Amino acid sequence: MQIPTHYMELERVHEATLARGLRALAVCAAEPDEGVSTLVRALARRNLLAGRSTLVVDLNLHHPTLVPVLDAPLGAEPGLLAPPQLVVGEVIGEVMTGVVAPSGAGNTLRLREPGVLEGQIRLWLECFDSVIIDTSPLNRVNAQNIPAERVAAACEGALLVVLAGHTRSATVDQALQRLRQAGAELKAAVFNDRDNPRLADELHREVRRLPRWAGRLKRHLHRSVAGMPLLSLEV
After folding, report:
1. How would DSSP label each residue in 72-137?
2. What are the CA-CA distances from residue 198 to residues 103, 117, 194, 201, 207 (Å)?
3. 169 vs 187: CA distance, rounded Å
4. Which class for 75: exposed (0-12), middle (13-18), buried (19 or more C-beta within 10 A)?
5. What is the pLDDT of residues 139-173, one digit of tens each?
6. Domains parsed from the chain with CATH numbers
7. What is d(CA 170, CA 185) in angstroms, rounded to the nearest whole number?
8. Is residue 141 within 8 Å of 147, Cβ to Cβ?
9. Rounded to whole angstroms, how far apart are CA atoms 202 and 196?
């Protein structure tokens, strides 16, 4: 799934975070598959359209999604994190500048240490206007992950994604508590209505399924649906 950059919902998220001068943003969720990686890439595209150089960092060790476009250059010395390079999403083949997820238990442990990730973010911000970090689920803590609340606390702010209709309120409360205890500053929350589309969206989708020869009818139905404000209400 890819979020178009012209969506007003994405515009509101961008205005509440990066457009206000926030330079280092961690995008989090309580549980896996709530749409964090999709939103990270969408925000990066929107931020690039605003003329800001943007680096996407994959610290979602629960499910890394970025892979390098090219092999690492010969002779490159291994480091705590790979250098910024052209990367591509695992599912959606869009190329951007990013940092792939670290490998090795030693690197993961070092990134958990106070000041280490903060120093790395400062170095990135010397070269990029904005850094957006994809994190592991807040409530999935294990030895292989870099805790999302630790990443959020190292950034200037955090954004919490909640999958509407799936994530329980108690689960969200637990995630918020982790962020507060780590000293992270929550800037905004996004409710992902992937499984709760508006009635208008569903009707438009059904109209698009009509055969090609019904072009005139399809255009008429699209206009009719768009002209009914009641169908566009968000619940």
Report:
1. PPTTPPP-SSPPPEEEEESSS--EEEEEPPP-SHHHHHHHHSTTHHHHHHHHHHTT-SEEEEEE--
2. 41, 40, 10, 5, 14
3. 19
4. exposed
5. 987 778 899 999 999 999 999 999 887 888 899 99
6. 8-192 (3.40.50.300), 199-232 (no CATH)
7. 20
8. yes
9. 10
pLDDT of 106 over the 60 cut: yes
Residue 61 predicted with pLDDT over 50: yes
Is the distance from CB of 46 to CB of 5 less than 8 angstroms?
Answer: yes
Q: Tokens 């404000």 belong to which residue?
A: 229
CA–CA separation, 15 and 217 (whole Å)? 38
Report the first-to-last Cα separation within the chain, whole angstroms: 22
Alpha-carbon span 176 to 114, nearest angstrom = 21
CA distance 141 to 162: 18
Report the C-alpha gap between 116 and 112 in whole angstroms.
Answer: 7
Which residues lie closer than 8 Å to 102 by C-beta, 6 or more apart?
A: 59, 61, 80, 81, 82, 108, 111
Q: What is the pTM of this model?
A: 0.81
Residue with tokens 């994530």: 167
Nearest 5 degrees, angle CA 74-CA 80-CA 83? 50
